[in-house]
Amino acid sequence: LINNPIVYTLDVENDLENYENYDKTGTQGIEVEYLVKYSKWFLDFSYSFYSAKDLNEVIPYSVEIDGATNESLLKGSPQHKFSLKGAYNFTDHISFSPSFVYLSERYGYIIDDQGQSKTDPTLLLNAFFLYKDLGFKNFDLGIGIYNILDQDYRLIQSYGEFEAAEAPYPTGGIEFTLKLGYRF
Fold first, then answer.
1. Which residues pair with residue 50 across a beta bridge?
2. Contact 95, 89 (CB under 8 A)
3. How far apart are CA 77 and CA 104, in angstroms?
4. Is 59 helix (H, G, I), strand (E, B) or coil?
5. The predicted structure's pLDDT at residue 133
6. pLDDT tens-digit map of 64-104
7. How far apart are CA 82 and CA 31, in angstroms?
8. How high is the pLDDT of residue 150?
9. Which of 24, 71, 142, 161 is 20 to 30 Å from the Cα of 36, by its Cα?
């Protein structure tokens, strides 16, 4: 719970940016995590759920669905999140680590001049290969692929109605990484 939050607002008619204090905002929810760990592999599953019902009084953060305010949701935030990550050690030197993140639909200002919109649920799939002690002790090589499914995942702002400045921040499409490291 946050009391007296300072909230950015925009007066579209007068093209004025403001900061206002509201009474409170907050969420309550639950997160469950299950971890299985063995010598060659591990899995980590988590589920998160939140509700803003009776806690959010910041009108710009509220979500309207079919003309009615859904008090449980906040703009820009998925209400449900599933995560599965793990690793498998093929040898003492070679490992593979996949991860999956599922985010439920989110609401916010996504497209200019169309008001509040809803995103589809998003599945982010990542993989990372690591080779330890490559050539000599403590020198590692990692190769990663992120957002393998090339999902259109954007960071949605909780404010701003029809201005490009408040459009969601894009994230990368498919991303490849090469990591060289030395462990001291």
1. 29
2. yes
3. 9
4. helix
5. 95
6. 888 899 999 999 899 999 999 999 999 999 999 999 999 99
7. 10
8. 94
9. 142
**DSSP per residue over the chain, as a string?**
-EES-EEEEEETTTTEEEEEE-SEE--EEEEEEEEEE-SSEEEEEEEEEEE-TTT---GGGEEEETTEEEEEEETT--SEEEEEEEEEESSSSEEEEEEEEEE---EEE-STTS-EEEPPPEEEEEEEEEE-SSSSTTEEEEEEEESTT----EE--SS-SS-GGGSPEE--SSEEEEEEEE--
Q: What would the two tokens of residue 111 be? A: 């497209």
Query: In whole angstroms, how far apart are CA 114 and each of 4, 48, 79?
Result: 30, 30, 23
Q: Which residues of 162-184 are buried (b: 16+ CB within 10 A; e: fewer)?
A: ebeebbbeeeeeeeeeeeeeeee
Amino acid at 163: E
pTM: 0.84
The sign one gets for the Cα dihedral 154, 157, 160, 165 is negative
Amino acid at 136: F
N-term to C-term CA, the chain: 42
In the chain, which residues have pLDDT < 50? 162, 164
